[in-house]
Specification:
Distance between the termini: 69 Å
CATH class: Alpha Beta
GO cellular component, one term: nucleoplasm
Cofactor: Mg(2+)
Mean pLDDT: 89
Low-confidence stretches: none
Organism: Cucurbita moschata (Winter crookneck squash)
Strand order of the largest sheet: 1-4-5-9-6
Shape: globular
Family: Belongs to the PPase family.
InterPro entries: Pyrophosphatase, Pyrophosphatase_sf
Number of helices: 4
Strand content: 25-35%
Structural class: alpha+beta
């Protein structure tokens, strides 16, 4: 064999796969579902994990695809408004609309869709969306030094609450959809709402397992 043939053979030789890579390829894996597989956290309902669906400052309405667990693009907002804070859901909770509990998280920075963080409930925003109850938990990031000291919604500047209310009142107007926002409620009501949604989720899982 000539030196040229040796060079070609070396070039075309398939490298051996790393054993860790090879073993991972041979195993069948299932992607984690953020609603069902992510723990809500040991300190819930006061402090809980939150999966971010929509980034602060975004006009894109991202939403959890309940079947796959992926974050999908639902639509672009019709109105010239953006989400005032990071928005997402609390894992292992269930509300009467068959979705997980919604949560708006106040913090300094935008967070990428699909990430999760620790949040602390400080209040509840009662909301009616096209005639159906669609309450939102108002929370702060438990690990943000600027916001983590807030414990109740009454501690927020009035303008901040007005900003949040106005966004939810307006963001569907150009779709001819009616949204009504009632007075914000204190942290105790928020904790009760989260606990109720945790209990409802547990009942649903128990009922499913009994089938």
């Amino acid at each position: 064999m000539t030196s040229n043939e040796n060079a070609v053979g070396e070039k075309n030789r398939v490298p051996k796969l790393n054993e860790r890579i090879l073993s991972s390829l041979s195993r069948r894996s299932v992607a984690a579902h953020p609603w069902h597989d992510l723990e809500i956290g040991p300190d819930a309902p006061k402090i809980f994990n939150c999966v971010v669906e929509i980034t602060k400052g975004s006009k894109v309405k991202y939403e959890l695809d309940k079947k796959t667990g992926l974050i999908k693009v639902d639509r672009i907002l019709y109105s010239s408004v953006v989400y005032p804070h990071n928005y997402g859901f609390i894992p292992r909770t269930l509300c009467e609309d068959n979705d997980p509990m919604d949560v708006l998280v106040l913090m300094q920075e935008p967070v990428l869709p699909g990430c999760f963080l620790r949040a602390k409930a400080i209040g509840l925003m009662p909301m009616i969306d096209q005639g159906e109850k669609d309450d939102k938990i108002i929370a702060v990031c438990a690990d943000d030094p600027e916001y983590k000291h807030y414990n109740d919604i009454k501690e927020l500047p009035p303008h901040r609450l007005s900003e949040i209310r106005r966004f939810f009142e307006d963001y569907k107007k150009n779709e001819n959809k009616e949204v009504a926002v009632n007075d914000f409620l204190h942290s105790g009501v928020a904790l009760e709402a989260i606990q109720y949604s945790m209990d409802l989720y547990a009942e649903y899982i128990l009922h499913t397992l009994r089938r």
